[in-house]
């Protein structure tokens, strides 16, 4: 079968790498791709926001599966477009319907969903310009930290955690005034949860599910989890504290009720669910849902998966997913992200890169790169991800850091402490 991957970051590069190993895949395509995905897939020149053009191209190339990496096409309804047009009936989209994508596309929708199915999460308020005073009163009458979340998609930047009361009030007003565009026309104020975060990934056909390896990612730009939030500076899988007791709680208290809610509401959901979780004491709470795989967690999770990902996607598309325990590599996978100087603020693109021909046992997943005059150059904030394996977190991350030192481009930066908080 022929497969198209939508997206151009490290997550989609990892999908390319993994799917290229499947005997079920004849030809692999990607749009828009990046400077490294051509190793595994042919790049298509098509505007992925134009579903008509994507559909026409898929018919020409006899593509039967579309696997969607980023959230925006899902929230915009790419699944619904293909399922509603008879001429595309042979094309399967791995990703939820537009309603299912609201679990990520609207924080308020997700919180209401969790409340309806008794899924543990932080207490919250929905605030718009119409009830701004309620939000200001809530901040005035409660101690910080204050968690303010833009309701809609804000490119991973719509969550603010603020210590000071007056600053929180000003930021609430600023968000409602358009700080994050229309995404913050509604703001969710959450109770602050103090614990350690981790992520669990589920693949579902809307009826049954399988659980992928878990991961812990690192969002802050600075070592010791300091500085500004980024799209992700690295990840570790498995997570040492995710023991059998916690796994059972996550499955029974969160995964099973989530799938039940999807079924009860008649939501068409054939794809991934990212559970952004926090362990408070010994109990898991949901911070957020995502309707796709995470980045850079995918770069640590999929390399540990022994099963054929394409086979799983076929089962999902045909509503024949067989519940089972998947097989994982018995090793730690650590991902270190190399980023452009200045990121997550302003940064320059077009910096020539020097990449060693041999990466040893590590795997390189291009993210913000492109090819210019036969030379790989930087083309984004997060440039390239390095994933390595080891029998300990320390040995795995040291391999990634060794390769990070060999890759050269002007302004290169990476965190050298990925996973160190998990080393006992």
Termini gap: 46 Å
Mean pLDDT: 96
**Regarding CATH, which class of the domain at 2-97?**
Alpha Beta
Low-confidence stretches: none
Percent of residues in helical segments?
Answer: 25-40%
Structural class: alpha+beta
What would your notes on this structure say?
- Helices cover 28% and strands 29% of the residues.
- The chain has helices at 10-19, 51-60, 72-75, 78-84, 98-105, 107-116, 132-141, 165-176, 244-264, 297-301, 309-317, 393-406, and strands at 2-7, 27-32, 42-43, 63-68, 92-96, 124-127, 146-150, 159-162, 187-190, 196-204, 209-211, 216-222, 226-237, 269-280, 283-290, 332-339, 363-366, 369-372, 375-378, 382-390.
- Strands 1, 2, 3, 4, 5, 10, 11, 14 and 15 form a nine-stranded mixed sheet that branches.
- A hairpin with a 3-residue loop joins strand 12 and strand 13.
- Helix 5 (98-105) packs across helix 6 (107-116) and helix 7 (132-141) runs antiparallel to helix 8 (165-176).
- It is globular.
- The model has no long low-confidence stretch (mean pLDDT 96).
Short characterization:
With 424 residues, this protein is of the alpha+beta class. Among the domains are: 2-97, Rossmann fold (3-Layer(aba) Sandwich), CATH 3.40.50.20; 124-190, Dna Ligase, domain 1, CATH 3.30.1490.20.
